[in-house]
Amino acid sequence: MGQRCRCCSLPDRELLDLALVGGASMRRVAARFRVPATCVRRHRQRHLPAELVEAQRLRELSRANTLAERLLYLEQEAAAVLLEAQGERGASWQSRTAHRRTRLQAVEELRRLVELREVETRLVEIEQAAQEARLRSEVSGGVE
């Protein structure tokens, strides 16, 4: 008969599980709970509650939605600043220079936001591909 999982035997097992699901490195978790990293790896692979992993995934998805909303807000704000700066015609030379600078900064911010939007889109695509791979794996594993 095999040995009992050292991580499962810990009095703070729930904290260990949360640290793993939260993305802490196995080495850091091992050091914190004073168990070998190989035990932590086996525990993560074999004993980590599926509900806990799914709950963390849903939290991350919720956070991503919040980030998307924040990104949309920032895009709208930058566009509004750009429109406001463009509307400042007939002002003094110094004022026009300041408005040009503001417009350039708004355009630069919009460019950065577009880049962030592209990264966000790519992350969603990766998550969808990973989910499809998990489903295919489950289906093929259930047939055998």
Write a structural description.
The chain has 144 residues and is an all-alpha fold. The chain folds into two domains: 13-46; 50-143. The chain has helices at 13-21, 26-33, 37-46, 50-86, 93-143. The mean pLDDT is 79.
Provide tags for this entry.
elongated, mainly alpha, 5 helices, 144 residues, 0% strand
Q: List segments where confidence is low: pLDDT < 50 over at least 5 consecutive residues.
A: none
Termini distance? 27 Å
Q: Pairing-aware structural class of the strands and helices?
A: mainly alpha
| Average pLDDT | 79
**Main sheet summary:** none
Which oligomeric state applies? Answer: single chain
Query: Can you count the beta strands?
Result: 0
Task: Give the H and E element order.
Answer: HHHHH
Summarize the structure.
By secondary structure, this protein is mainly alpha-helical. The chain has helices spanning 13-21, 26-33, 37-46, 50-86, 93-143.
Describe the protein's topology.
Elements: H1 13-21, H2 26-33, H3 37-46, H4 50-86, H5 93-143
Helix pairs in contact: 2-3, 4-5
